Amino acid sequence: MKSQPTTYCKIRRRLKVNREIPVIFGEQQQLGIIHIAQGSQTGVVIVVGGPQYRIGSHRQFLKLSRFLATSGITSIRFDCAGMGDSGGEFKSYMDIDTSIKQAIDTLQLKCPEIKKIVLWGLCDAATAITKYCETDSRITGLFLLNPWVKNEQLAAESLVKNHYKKQMFSLQFWKRVFTGQVKIFSAASDFVSNLLVMKKNKNEQIPKDQPQHSQPGYLQEMMLQKLQRFEGKTQIVLSENDLTAKEFVTATNGQKWQQLISTKPIPITTITGANHTFASEQWRSQVQNLTLEFVSS
Half-sphere exposure (CA, 13 Å, Cβ side) for 241? Predict the structure, then answer.
């Protein structure tokens, strides 16, 4: 009976097939991994958002890169300056333009056959790559998952229109109320507080020390203008059970957004049951297949 290959041999075999190459680039000594697929002329740049690094939640970015490589698509995943194993200081997701550009430069340096770039981002990384896209003519596509457009008023509006509305018609919620499992006065107080924030005068003076990207309406307007000017293709993927996705839907209900989505067009796919980070194998598989379909089209 033949013995099974050791883990070491399996890793060597996979590296030989997919060619996973570590790279260090930029003045901040940023660390990335390039997954090379022979003959690929399109490269996917996976931009990391939030307090994350190149592996991703549930190893999502690692699995995505390996899936793409076996499907004939080269990609790079990397730590932004100041995150993960990269040097430097991380300021905010709105300040990673240099990291994105240097990752693209490095990918094309190592893989000169790459002519087209697709940027891939989840949450605030989706917002960051939308901000960056029109500055770089190499970018031909944006794959945006649960884009971050949050501000205080939008969060309150999303809670009122989604969470509280759902609770009002939930038999399970009222059972919990009548059995004392829910403090009804506390819940009512939270509802009123969010309603007041939602109705707050949008024209009131903004504190001077408040960052521009956290001001009401800034992110959705910025994304709208960037996508209007972007000449490449865009795909948006939303999770059904995610507050960030619901906030994005609320923010884009206006006429300008709906016109952009329908005329460009920008397809929006909602993954049934999925949470913010697509934590199950089924949800991750759907994201992988959507990514491959988008990049290959």
Answer: 9
Contact 54, 61 (CB under 8 A): yes
Residues 140 and 166 in one domain: no
Query: Over 90: is that where the pLDDT of 133 sits?
Result: yes
DSSP H stretches of helix in the chain:
7-18, 60-70, 97-110, 124-132, 152-158, 165-168, 171-178, 184-198, 218-229, 243-251, 255-263, 281-296
Report yes or no on whether pTM surpasses 0.85.
no
CATH number of the CATH domain containing 60: 3.40.50.1820
pLDDT category at 294 given cuts 50, 70, 90 is very high
Per-residue pLDDT at 10 exceeds 60:
no
Cα(281)–Cα(242) distance, integer angstroms = 17
Task: Judge if 157 and 264 occupy the same domain.
Answer: no
- Say whether pLDDT at 235 is over 90: yes
Same domain, yes or no, for 221 and 279?
Answer: yes
- Split into its structural domains, the chain has a count of 2
